[in-house]
Design goal:
heterodimer; A: alpha/beta; six-stranded mixed beta sheet; B: mainly alpha; about 75% helix
C-alpha cells in the first residue's frame, strides 16, 4: 500500500518538501540560466555547508523539544577566538582550530548546564547566550578587528576543490551528516533523544538519563557551530565578530521545513537535509534567474507555512480515521508537567486537540496563503520584466536600442539593498543601462553580509554574466571569488569600496576612506574652531567601512587637531530611532560635546531630531548621509553639513564603465573616458575617479535629489 | 502575595539596585528630562511587549512583531501623507497590525501550525516583502500635523503617558478580573482542559494574536509621530527585545503564567540598562554581552530559587506520607 511506503520513508511528511524541492528544480531549470549543471550543483552544496552543519546539529535539539538560538552568535565567537589565537596568540593553525572547537564546546556546555541542570527553558537560555556570545565577540575585538592572512592550506578548505569539481568542505559535511544519522537513528543516544522529546517524564521512568541526553544535544550543537565557524572563516578568508549573523533562523527554518516537530519527538536527519536543500536551491535559483533577493524571504516564509499546513491537514485526516480503531492516544503526559525543558512548548501541542475546524476551512486558508504567494511572485516577475530596460522582442519600440545581436549583461551588487544610499546609486545605474542599452541585474544582500555577497558572485559566474560590479563589503573574502570570475572571462569592476587590485579590472572610486575621514574631521574642526569635544555615532559596531573612517578620523585628530577630543563612539545599528536615543544620552552624559558626527546614512536625521527636540542650539550635527532625508534639518540649521558624493553619478559611472569594458574594452593606460552626461572622467592607473566628495549645506542642498 | 509575584519582586529589586548605583555614580540619570526621554524611547517597546505577553500567556510566541512594527509605521506614514486626518491614520496603523496579527492567529489556532513556525515565516516574509515594496526608501514630506499628532512637543508625552497608563492598568485589571482575561490564562495553562471546560480556545488564541498585532500597530504609530519621516527598516530585533522583557518579567514561555505588570518591569529593566551603561561609562562594545548576562542571571536566580522550593515541597510531601 502506498500509504505504508510513505509512512516508512517519510514519517513526518518530508515528501511534501521533497515535492516542493522538485518543483523548485523544475521551475528554475526552465527559467534560470545555467541552473541545471553539475558545476552549479556543487556550488549550491558549497554554499550550504555552514548552514547545513548548524541545521544538522539543531535537529536533535529540536527533537528533544528544545531550540538553540545561540548557534549564529557562537559562530561569531568561535571565529574571533580562532582568528585571535592564530594571529595574536601565534598558535599553529591546528591548535587555534582546536581552541575554537573547545570554545564551542564550552558555550554549548553553558547552554546545557542552564537547560538540563537548572531546568530553564531552552528558548530563554539561548536567547540570553545569543546576546552573550555575540557580545563577547564584539567586546574582544571592539567589533572592528578583522583577522585575515590565514595559510593557503587552511583557506583551501573553504575555497578549494577536490579533483577539480568537489568543493573541499563538502566531505566535512558528509562525515558530520553520516555521524549524526548514526547517532540519531541507529544508537541508544538517538532513541533517548526521541524519548525525551516525546515525553520527558515517561523517558525518566523508562530509565533514560534525561538531563545527560539533553545536555549532549546542546554541547554537540555548540561544537558544530564552532566547526561551522572554521569552515566559514576558510570560505571567506576572514574572521570577524559578525560571522554567522542571522544563521540561527535559517538553520531552524531548514530543520522545521524538513518535518521535524518543534514539540519534539519526531523528525529525521533526511528531512533536515531535504529542508536545507529546498532553502539553498530557492536562493540559488532566484539569483540565477536574476529575481530580486527579497523574494527569498517571502517565498521561504510561504514555503514554510504551506508545507506544514499541508502536513497538518494530512495528519489530521489520518488521525480522524484512526481515532476509533486505536483509541485516543492523547499525550497528556506531554502537557502535564511543564517544568521540564523537554516539554517547553508542549502546552500548545496540537496533536492533543480535537478538530475544531472543518477541513474545508483549512483548505481555504491554505489556498489563501498559496494564492498570496503566487500573486507576489507573479507581480514580481512582471515588475522585474518592466524594470529591465527596453530591447526585448516585446519591447522593440524602446528608445535608442542598439542594434547589437546580444546586449551585454551587467550584474551590479550593492552592499545592502535596502540602504537609502545604495537605492540612490541604483537610480543612476538604471539610467546608464537604459542609455547604453545594456541589461542590468541589480541584486545584493538585504543587509550587510559578506558571505551573501560571495554567494551571489558565485551564482553570477554560473549564470555567465558579462560584467560583475561589486560594492565590496569584505575585501579579503570576495577577492578570491572575483579572481575566479576574471579567470572565466568576466569583466570585474568594483565600486564604492575596492577589492584587491588584481581581482578587478577597474575600481570606480568616489572618494577614499582617508578623504572621507579627513573631510569630516576638518569640517568638525572648522565648526568647533579647532577645539572642544565631539562624539561619533556609527552604524553597526562591526561595520567595516565605518571602522575604517573612524581610524582615519583618529589619525587626523592626532596629526592636526590636538585640542579636538573624541568623547565617545556609539552604535546606531543603521537604525534612525537608535541614533536618536543614543544622541539624547550623549548630550546628557557628555555635556561638553558640541558636535555629533553621524557616519551612517539613517543616523544623521536621527541625531538631528534628538538635538532639535532637546532644543540644543549649541550642539552641531554633521555627517555622512543623503541630502533628501536631511533637507528639513539642514534648512532649519540643526545639521550644518552633510558630506557625500553624488551617488546617482556613482551608479551611472559604474554601469558605463562596465558596458565600455564589455563592448570595446578599456586598454590599460587610458588616461580618461568619455562618460556620457558626466563629461570626461579621469582614470588614474586602474581607478576611475568620480571626483571629490560634495559638501551639502543650506546653500546647495536643494539642487540635489537623491 | 510576595510569593505569588516572586519574579516581579526579584526584578523590582534588581531595578532598585541599579537605581541606587546610578544615584550614587551618575545622579544626572534621574533628571526629569532624561526620564522623559527614556519613557518616550521605551514606550513603543512597552506597548508591543504587552501584546507579546498576552501571546505568551496563551502558550504561543510571536517573533514577527518587529516586521509588523515596520509595516505599521510605513502604513501610518503613507496614509498620513495622503492627507488623512490623524484619527484615520491611527486607526489604519492599528488595523494593519490587527490584520497581520489575525493572519498569524488564524494559522496558529485554526490550521494548527506551531506559532514559532508561523511567526518565523511571517517575520521573514513581511520584512522582505516590505523591503521589496519600499525598496528602502523612507516616507518623507509628512504633513506638519503628523508629528506629535498635531500637538506640541511638550504635551505629547502626557498623551503618550495617558495611553500607556490606560493600557497597562486596563490590561492588568482585565486579565485578572474579566472572563476574557481568565480565558487567556486557562488556554495557556492547559489548552485541552480549557476546551473541555467549554472555552473556544481557537478563537481565544486567534483573537489574542490579532490584539497583539493591533498593539504593535499602536506602538508603531506612537513611535512614528515622534519624528517627521518614517524609515522603512524600523523594528529590526524588536521581537527579541520584547520577548526578553516579557520573560524576564516572569512570563513562562509554556503559557499560563506571567503578568502585564511583570512585563512592565522587564521593559523598565532592559530599557534602563542600555543608557545606564553609558552613564556609568561602560564601553559600547561590551554592552551586548552585559545585556545577555543580565537576562541569564535573572532567569538563573529564579530557577535556583524555584529548585529549592521544589525540594522543600517534596520533603513536606514525604513527611505527610
Amino acid at each position: 500500500m502506498t500509504g505504508g511506503v510513505r509512512a516508512r520513508w517519510f514519517p513526518n511528511g518530508e515528501w511534501i518538501v521533497l515535492l516542493a524541492l522538485a518543483g523548485e528544480v523544475a521551475l528554475f531549470s526552465a527559467v534560470a540560466r545555467n541552473f541545471a549543471t553539475v558545476g552549479n550543483f556543487f556550488e549550491v552544496t558549497r554554499l550550504s555547508v555552514e548552514l547545513g552543519l548548524l541545521a544538522i546539529a539543531m535537529t536533535p535539539v529540536v527533537v528533544t523539544g528544545g531550540i538553540d538560538l545561540s548557534v549564529g552568535s557562537m559562530m561569531g565567537l568561535a571565529a574571533v577566538v580562532f582568528g585571535a589565537a592564530y594571529r595574536d596568540g601565534h598558535l599553529p593553525i591546528a591548535a587555534a582550530a582546536i581552541l575554537a572547537l573547545l570554545v564551542g564546546v564550552a558555550g554549548g556546555s553553558l547552554n546545557a548546564l542552564l537547560i538540563a541542570r537548572f531546568r530553564i527553558l531552552p528558548i530563554i537560555v539561548t536567547l540570553g547566550t545569543f546576546s552573550l556570545f555575540r557580545g563577547i565577540a564584539e567586546g574582544m575585538t571592539q567589533a572592528a578587528v578583522n583577522y585575515t592572512g590565514f595559510p593557503a592550506q587552511f583557506v583551501a578548505l573553504g575555497q578549494g576543490y577536490l579533483w577539480g569539481v568537489i568543493p573541499a568542505q563538502l566531505p566535512v559535511f558528509v562525515v558530520v551528516f553520516a555521524a549524526y544519522v548514526v547517532l540519531l537513528h541507529r544508537s541508544v543516544v538517538g532513541r533517548g533523544w526521541y524519548a525525551v522529546g516525546f515525553g520527558a517524564s515517561g523517558a525518566r521512568y523508562a530509565g533514560i538519563p534525561v538531563a545527560r541526553r539533553i545536555a549532549l544535544a546542546y554541547v554537540l550543537s555548540g561544537l558544530m557551530s564552532s566547526l561551522a565557524a572554521l569552515v566559514y572563516v576558510a570560505h571567506l578568508g576572514q574572521a570577524k565578530s559578525d560571522a554567522g549573523l542571522g544563521y540561527e533562523l535559517d538553520a531552524i527554518t531548514a530543520v522545521v521545513l524538513g518535518g521535524t516537530s518543534v514539540f519534539g519527538g519526531r523528525g529525521t536527519m533526511w528531512g533536515t537535509l531535504v529542508g536545507l536543500a529546498a532553502l539553498a536551491v530557492l536562493r540559488n535559483g532566484l539569483h540565477l534567474a536574476a529575481l530580486p533577493s527579497e523574494l527569498t524571504g517571502v517565498l521561504t516564509g510561504t514555503l514554510l507555512v504551506a508545507t506544514i499546513a499541508l502536513d497538518r491537514v494530512r495528519s489530521r485526516a489520518r488521525r480522524t480515521a484512526n481515532v476509533y480503531s486505536t483509541g485516543d492516544v492523547a499525550p497528556e503526559g506531554l502537557a502535564a508537567s511543564p517544568q521540564h525543558p523537554g516539554e517547553a512548548l508542549a502546552g500548545l501541542d496540537a496533536s492533543a486537540a480535537e478538530d475544531t475546524v472543518k477541513n474545508s476551512q483549512v483548505a481555504v486558508l491554505c489556498a489563501a496563503v498559496l494564492g498570496g504567494a503566487l500573486l507576489v511572485a507573479g507581480t514580481n516577475v512582471w515588475l522585474v520584466r518592466s524594470l529591465v530596460p527596453p530591447g526585448r522582442p516585446s519591447d522593440a519600440a524602446g528608445p535608442a536600442a542598439p542594434s547589437q545581436a546580444r546586449r551585454p549583461v551587467v550584474a551590479m551588487m550593492p552592499k545592502a539593498k535596502g540602504d537609502p544610499y545604495f537605492v540612490s546609486c541604483r537610480a543612476g545605474a538604471e539610467e546608464a543601462a537604459k542609455e547604453l542599452g545594456v541589461e542590468l541585474i541589480w541584486d545584493g544582500p538585504t543587509s550587510l553580509d559578506a558571505a551573501r555577497q560571495n554567494e551571489l558572485v558565485e551564482n553570477w559566474i554560473t549564470r555567465k554574466v558579462d560584467v560583475i560590479a561589486v560594492a565590496v563589503e569584505n575585501r579579503g573574502g570576495i577577492s578570491s571569488v572575483l579572481r575566479k570570475a576574471r579567470d572565466r572571462g568576466i569583466h570585474v569592476v568594483t565600486w564604492d569600496s575596492d577589492a584587491d587590485p588584481d581581482a578587478r579590472d577597474f575600481f570606480v572610486n568616489q572618494a577614499t576612506s582617508e578623504g572621507i575621514g579627513n573631510t569630516l574631521t576638518d569640517e568638525a574642526a572648522r565648526i568647533l574652531g579647532g577645539k572642544g569635544e565631539f562624539a561619533v555615532i556609527t552604524g553597526a559596531l562591526s561595520a567595516a567601512n565605518q571602522n575604517e573612517w573612524i581610524a582615519f578620523i583618529r589619525k587626523r585628530l592626532a596629526a592636526k587637531y590636538p585640542d579636538l577630543k573624541l568623547a565617545t563612539i556609539r552604535p546606531s545599528d543603521d537604525d534612525r530611532d537608535k541614533a536618536f536615543s543614543e544622541t539624547q544620552t550623549i548630550m546628557r552624559v557628555f555635556p561638553a560635546v558640541r558636535l555629533v558626527m553621524a557616519i551612517s546614512a539613517p543616523a544623521v536625521p536621527g541625531s538631528a531630531e534628538a538635538v532639535r527636540q532637546a532644543n540644543r542650539h549649541d550642539v552641531n550635527v554633521i555627517g555622512l548621509s543623503l541630502p533628501n532625508i536631511n533637507k528639513p534639518y539642514v534648512h532649519d540649521g540643526w545639521v550644518q553639513t552633510v558630506v557625500l558624493w553624488n551617488t546617482r553619478d556613482l551608479g551611472y559611472l559604474t554601469v558605463l564603465a562596465g558596458a565600455r569594458l564589455a563592448r570595446e574594452g578599456i586598454p590599460p593606460g587610458t588616461p580618461a573616458i568619455e562618460a556620457g552626461r558626466l563629461g570626461t572622467i579621469q582614470i588614474r592607473g586602474t581607478e576611475i575617479v568620480l571626483g571629490a566628495p560634495t559638501m551639502f549645506t543650506k546653500a546647495n542642498i536643494d539642487k540635489f535629489d537623491f | 502575595m510576595l510569593k505569588r509575584h516572586r519574579r516581579e519582586t526579584s526584578i523590582a529589586l534588581v531595578i532598585v539596585a541599579l537605581g541606587l548605583v546610578l544615584a550614587g555614580v551618575a545622579p544626572a540619570y534621574f533628571a526629569s528630562d532624561n526620564l522623559q526621554d527614556l519613557f518616550l524611547g521605551n514606550m513603543p517597546a512597552l506597548i508591543v511587549a504587552l501584546g507579546a505577553t498576552l501571546v505568551i500567556l496563551t502558550g504561543n510566541i510571536d517573533i514577527s512583531a518587529g516586521s509588523m512594527f515596520a509595516i505599521c509605521g510605513v502604513v501610518a506614514g503613507v496614509v498620513g501623507k495622503g492627507g488623512a486626518p490623524m484619527p484615520v491614520v491611527a486607526l489604519s496603523a492599528c488595523l494593519a497590525g490587527a490584520a497581520l496579527g489575525a493572519l498569524n492567529g488564524a494559522l496558529v489556532a485554526y490550521v494548527r501550525i506551531p506559532s514559532v513556525v508561523v511567526t518565523l515565516a511571517t517575520m521573514v516574509a513581511l520584512r522582505d516583502g516590505l523591503r521589496w515594496v519600499t525598496q528602502g526608501t523612507w516616507v518623507q514630506d509628512l504633513p506638519s500635523g503628523f508629528q506629535w499628532f498635531g500637538l506640541s512637543q511638550g504635551t505629547y508625552p502626557f498623551v503618550a503617558a495617558a495611553v500607556v497608563i490606560v493600557l497597562q492598568a486596563g490590561l492588568g485589571w482585565g486579565m485578572r478580573n474579566l472572563a476574557a482575561g481568565r480565558a487567556v490564562y486557562a488556554t495557556g495553562s492547559n489548552e485541552h482542559a480549557a476546551r473541555l471546560a467549554g472555552f473556544d480556545t481557537a478563537r481565544i488564541t486567534s483573537s489574542v494574536f490579532a490584539l497583539a498585532g493591533a498593539l504593535t500597530g499602536l506602538g508603531a504609530l506612537l513611535n512614528s509621530v515622534r519624528f517627521n519621516q518614517i524609515p522603512s527598516n524600523a523594528g529590526i530585533g524588536l521581537e527579541m527585545k520584547v520577548i526578553a522583557a516579557a520573560v524576564v518579567g516572569g512570563a513562562a514561555i509554556s503559557g499560563g503564567q506571567g503578568s502585564v505588570a511583570g512585563t512592565l518591569l522587564g521593559v523598565v529593566l532592559l530599557g534602563a540598562v542600555g543608557p545606564a551603561l553609558t552613564f556609568l561609562g561602560v564601553n559600547a562594545y561590551w554592552e551586548r554581552a552585559l545585556q545577555g548576562a543580565i537576562i541569564l542571571a535573572a532567569v538563573t536566580i529564579d530557577a535556583v530559587r524555584e529548585g529549592s522550593d521544589r525540594r522543600r515541597a517534596r520533603e513536606v510531601l514525604a513527611g505527610a506520607a
